[in-house]
Specification:
Pnp Oxidase, Chain A, three-stranded antiparallel β-sheet
C-alpha cells in the first residue's frame, strides 16, 4: 500500500455554532445555477437557486429547495406552477439580478406561459413544472414537481462553487 501526501483537511461537526464551516464544506460541491420563476400576487417573480436536481425520468420529476428565510419563500413554496431555468455561462448577470431582486424582469427576454408562468428565453435549459408534493427540509422546503415541458440549447453552464459563480472549463482535447 502506498501512502500519498494529501492536502490538509478541515473538519467540522455540523451544529448551531458551526454553520459557516459546514456551508464551506458543502460549497466544495459545484452545482449549476438556475433561476426559478412563478406568477405571484405581485406579478412575475424569480429567484436564483442552485438546489435543483433530477428525481425521475418516468414519471418526469425534478426537485428544488427554496430557503425558508427568503422573503420570496411563501410564493415559491405555495406555487402550483413554476419554471426552472438552467443558466448558461454568458448569463451570469441574469442569475445575479434575481439573487438580489425577485421582480428583476425589466430588460430580460421573457413571456408568460399558457399557465401564466414567466418563461425566460435563451437559457441553457428550461423546465416547465407543476408541483406534485412538498416536504419539510429543515431550513428549506423540498419541492418535487412534474416536468410538463423541457427545452434546451447547446452551450456551457454557469457553475456555482465556494460562494462564487463561474464557468466550467473542459480539459484541452488530447490528440
Amino acid at each position: 500500500m502506498t501512502t500519498e501526501t494529501s492536502p490538509e483537511m478541515a473538519e467540522v461537526v455540523p451544529g448551531p455554532n458551526t454553520q459557516k464551516a459546514f456551508r464551506d464544506a458543502l460549497g466544495r460541491f459545484a452545482t449549476g445555477v438556475t433561476v426559478v420563476t412563478t406568477h405571484s400576487e405581485i406579478g412575475p417573480l424569480g429567484i436564483t437557486a442552485n438546489s435543483f436536481a433530477s428525481v425521475s425520468l418516468d414519471p418526469p420529476l425534478v426537485l428544488w429547495s427554496p430557503a425558508k428565510h427568503s422573503r420570496r419563500y411563501h410564493a415559491f413554496a405555495e406555487a402550483t406552477d413554476f419554471a426552472i431555468h438552467v443558466i448558461g455561462e454568458e448569463q451570469a448577470e441574469i442569475a445575479s439580478r434575481f439573487s438580489r431582486n425577485g421582480t428583476a424582469f425589466d430588460g430580460c427576454d421573457w413571456a408568460p406561459s399558457d399557465r401564466g408562468v414567466p418563461l425566460l428565453n435563451g437559457c441553457l435549459a428550461r423546465f416547465e413544472c407543476s408541483t406534485v408534493t412538498t416536504h419539510d427540509g429543515g431550513d428549506h422546503r423540498i419541492v418535487i414537481a412534474r416536468v410538463l415541458r423541457a427545452t434546451w440549447r447547446d452551450g456551457a453552464p454557469l457553475v456555482f462553487s465556494q460562494g462564487q459563480m463561474g464557468r466550467f472549463a473542459l480539459p484541452d482535447d488530447a490528440d
